[in-house]
Write a structure and sequence with these properties.
This protein has three domains: 93 residues, no CATH class; 149 residues, Jelly Rolls; 151 residues, Sandwich (Jelly Rolls). 16% of the residues lie in helices and 31% in strands. It is built from five helices and 20 strands. A hairpin with a 5-residue loop joins β15 and β16.
């Protein structure tokens, strides 16, 4: 009786152990995310804008077959924070175009890869995102293109190229969205689009002037920066009730940065525009403030250059675009309010020239009359900077990538605009 009891007990224990293992295995298997149900929605939302056929990323992530071979690489990029690319340190929710993954999304991707990257049930796969003929803004109301193709050689360094594109607008236009579309993305690093209003003299090339135009002034110079494209940028899409004004007869000036890749190519880039359906309740404006009066000595690994803008009207800041070249190391922006308070509004401790990001504030920043926005950039002209074109060079302001800039694009609105002839802000620069 005792032997039989122990036999039953042993068998029962074995069965319970087996059931426990089966239950644990089933739970583990069920907990492993699948591409179709869990991973694809994350990729479609955060990655597809670049990782799709014909865009800037080297591979598409729209299908399981395209994504699976890159699983381990994705894991590394997600863990290190290299992808999606984002360089500001402000908390999630500060910027409306923040590309960073949530901790939950990171966990899902990592568990999917560690679990063998299963495909799952194809019926769970959501519809892929739709891109209208490659335009992020949707089908444009107007497309303005370079007059002819530019031939990019197979090798060598190309100085910035400049192309004028007439708008041929016969009346003033309110712009709801504007986007730059490279003709051949593989050879276009970035494009800056300036709008020169009618009657403006053809001034120096972009950035060649010491003091850029004030927000309410018109004419002279290259015009206001109205659109950009580069790895990391987004189209400018304004909410209903807000729009950008492009006057009748204006001309767009495209600054093109081409890079060779071993294969000769031709490019004819375009600018797509969607017009506001009615005059806006609030005009959105663009401009820039700079400090071109700097000298970076050979070997300097943390050279500091400051600039600032002081507001003479109550203003709201919608976005900032920090821009340096290959020696750019970091950026920091702070607002000094009239009551003496100081607030850091954008910090980019590891600036990367290859990712030109426009930081769009989820809630526009109030810059009351008398407030001052200060920008501080640091540069590394030493051998430790692997992107440095020449650590032995003395570096000054210039258009080309082997030179440098301290440039901030700013998108803003004035709460109660004064007369159009009055300047909205004064600019100062510090060496």
């Amino acid at each position: 009786m005792t032997k039989r009891y122990w036999l039953y007990a042993t068998v029962l224990a074995t069965l319970l152990l087996a059931l426990s293992v089966i239950s644990t295995t089933s739970t583990t298997t069920a907990a492993t995310p699948t591409f179709s149900k869990d991973v694809a929605p994350i990729l479609y939302k955060n990655c597809a804008v670049c990782h799709r056929p014909g865009d800037i990323a080297p591979m598409s992530l729209l299908t399981y077959e395209n994504t699976r071979p890159w699983a381990r690489a994705i894991r590394e990029q997600v863990i290190t924070g290299q992808m999606p690319p984002w360089h500001a340190t402000q908390p999630h929710g500060t910027f409306s175009n923040d590309r960073r993954l949530s901790e939950q999304d990171k966990d899902t991707l990592i568990r999917w890869i560690d679990g063998g990257a299963p495909q799952g049930n194809a019926k769970d796969l959501p519809p892929p995102p739709k891109f209208s003929d490659g335009w992020e803004i949707g089908k444009p109301d107007a497309i303005l293109s370079m007059a002819k193709e530019y031939e990019v050689p197979e090798s060598g360094e190309i100085a910035y190229q400049y192309f004028q594109v007439p708008t041929n607008f016969t009346e003033d236009k309110w712009v709801q969205a504007i986007e730059v579309r490279p003709g051949t993305r593989s050879v276009v690093h970035h494009v800056l689009v300036f709008c020169r209003e009618p009657g403006a003299k053809a001034g120096p090339l972009p950035y060649a002037h010491v003091v850029p135009k004030l927000p309410h002034q018109h004419g002279g110079g290259p015009g206001n920066l109205v659109a950009t494209t580069a790895p990391g940028t987004n189209a400018l899409i304004l909410p209903p009730g807000k729009a950008l004004l492009i006057k009748a007869g204006s001309v767009l000036l495209l600054q093109m940065h081409y890079t060779t890749n071993g294969t000769a190519a031709k490019d004819r880039s375009s600018v797509g525009i969607i017009f506001a359906k009615q005059p806006p309740q609030q005009e959105i404006r663009t401009n820039a403030f700079v400090n071109p009066l700097f000298v970076i000595l050979p070997g300097a690994n943390n050279h500091e250059v400051k600039s600032a803008i002081q507001f003479t009207e109550d203003t709201h800041i919608l976005g900032l675009i920090p821009h340096t070249h290959l020696r750019g190391k970091s950026w920091d922006y702070r607002i000094i309010y009239p009551d003496g308070r100081t607030e850091t509004v954008l910090s980019v401790p590891k600036y990367n020239f290859n990712w030109q990001t426009y930081y769009a504030f989820a809630k526009p920043l109030a810059a009351p009359k008398g407030a001052r926005l200060e920008a501080t950039a640091h540069y590394d002209n030493s051998t430790a900077n692997r992107f440095n074109p020449d650590p032995k060079a003395t570096v000054r302001w210039g258009d080309q990538t082997w030179e440098e800039m301290q440039y901030t694009g700013i998108i803003f609105s004035v709460d109660k605009p004064q007369d159009a002839a009055s300047p909205q802000a004064s600019r100062t620069g510090k060496k």
